[in-house]
Amino acid sequence: MFTWGVSTSAYQVEGYPLQDGACPSNWHEFTHRPGTVMDGTNGDIACDHFHRYPEDIKAIADMGLTGYRFSIAWTRVFPEPGKVNQKGLDFYERLLDALLGAGIQPWATIFHLEEPLWIARAGGMRNRTTVDHLVDFGTTLMRRFGDRLKNWITINEPTIYAWSCFAIGEFPPGRKNDLRGMLHSIHHMLLAHGWLCQAFPSIVSGGMIGLAHHFLWVSPADLLREKDRRAAAFMDAAANSMVLDPLFRGRYPEPVTRRLTRFLPRGFEKDLVEIQNPGTYVGINYYTRNRYRYSLLTPFLHAAEHVDPRAPRSGQWEIYPRGIYRALLRLRDEYGNPPCVITENGFPAREVAGRDPLDDPERIAYLSDHVSLLGKAIQEGVDCRGFFVWSLLDNFEWNWGLQMRNGLLRTDYPTLRREWKKSAHWYRDLAKRNWLEVERFPPES
Ligand code: NOJ
Q1: For this structure, is 344 an active site residue?
Q2: Which helix (H) or strand (E) holds 109?
Q3: What is the rounded CA–CA span in Å between residue 390 and residue 283?
């Protein structure tokens, strides 16, 4: 049965990040530093999902959805190295009970951008020792919940973590142009993924495990310019093959190793044998495409993003639905058509004064175009098992703060009331009919 679901992550929705003995995270510390989040907000309360999860689960059930993807806060479970905090685990126990009681399959992410401050202070994902801690965290969760929790995501968006934390500095620790930090952290996250996938079958029977890759569709700024085409090919290797090639082929893509080997950890080749383990499916987070032009002045990458002012945009990115279809076909053709799940797809927007915040036709159009193209890909043989909207409700959108809204439900932050947007009604109808609209996109002849 195809799963229709919604996604969230701990820091973005839960609030009360220090409750019940949890330690602060890299994000808690970062958001309390002035100037880091565009609207000055933080995840101290967020949506208060920590207390209001019963109401949120009821909304998921009322939408007729069968999947809820959430993440488990590492800070609640391991506030100190090596010491499990039972109270932290108990929260997720309650969440699981409520989900299963409502007939909703839980999908849990082990690492979703947020790490305990004690990990961050030791270098975060740049430090190889973090791999041991992360695997310890993940296997602790599998042992505690694996009898009932069958669907797992090891790591969410390794490339986005690496890029945002170490290349552009928008995520903690806010470093820029640190190629070593980027490549070390990607490598370590992939290694943790490999080890978690290895441990999984002996702890959890009959489950699914994979990582959620941010599939960025990449195009040259000018298709007719050879230099732009080469810049785009390099960026595509760095954004996509950098994760998929090691998982499926046991090697990093050649364009990246040719230019950047010196920034990878010494002896990285030895780990590739263990990284070559996609798990049982691939999660795809798809939102947008980027275009690149050749740029002599950008060190090492020699590529710069080019924003086409004519292209349609959401609150953050270009709207390019065809990218989801092309990404899925690439998975089919270049990586042996593994089972896959769209672990995220969604439409960010700010509220506009004078406009009804519950009326969101742009979000409906965005989601409906992407679902249609997913339908076309499935019709053409892609083995996709589920689709999760980001997000169930408006939440803390990292460096954008609370202003950037992705929810099917509107969060009224002063009162924390949830209200259904039109897109929530639309999604309920879609899930009810279990409908993948394909007619508008007939198979290519
Ligand atoms: C990807 C991330 O996994 C999630 O945390 C984020 O909020 C959404 N994209 C929207 O930007």
Answers
A1: yes
A2: strand 105-111
A3: 13
Q: Tokens 């996609």 — which residue?
A: 278
Q: Based on the number of CB atoms within 10 Å of its own CB, is 205 exposed (0-12), middle (13-18) or buried (19 or more)?
A: exposed
**Gap between the terminal Cα atoms of the chain:** 29
Contact 30, 43 (CB under 8 A): no
Catalytic residue among 115, 157, 318, 397: 157
CA distance 424 to 72: 25
Write the CA distances from 315 to 49, 268, 332, 397, 404, integer angstroms: 24, 38, 31, 12, 7
| Residue 159 vs residues 37, 189, 211: alpha-carbon distances, Å | 21, 10, 12
pLDDT tens sequence across 308-349: 999 999 999 999 999 999 999 999 999 999 999 999 999 999
Binding site membership of 109 for ligand 1 (Cβ less than 6 Å): no
DSSP 71: E
Is the pTM higher than 0.85?
yes
Output phi, psi for 84, to 5 deg: -75, 135
Phi-psi sector, 16: left (phi>0), alpha (psi -120 to 50), beta: left
Task: Reduce the DSSP state of residue 45 to 3 states and report it.
Answer: coil
Measured in Å, residue 12 CA sits from the centre of ligand 1 at 9
Whether the pLDDT of residue 436 is over 90: the answer is no
Q: What is the DSSP letter of 39?
A: T
Active site residue 305: no
Burial 272-304 (b: 16+ CB within 10 A, else e): beebbbbbbbbbbbbbbbbbbbbbeeeeebbbb
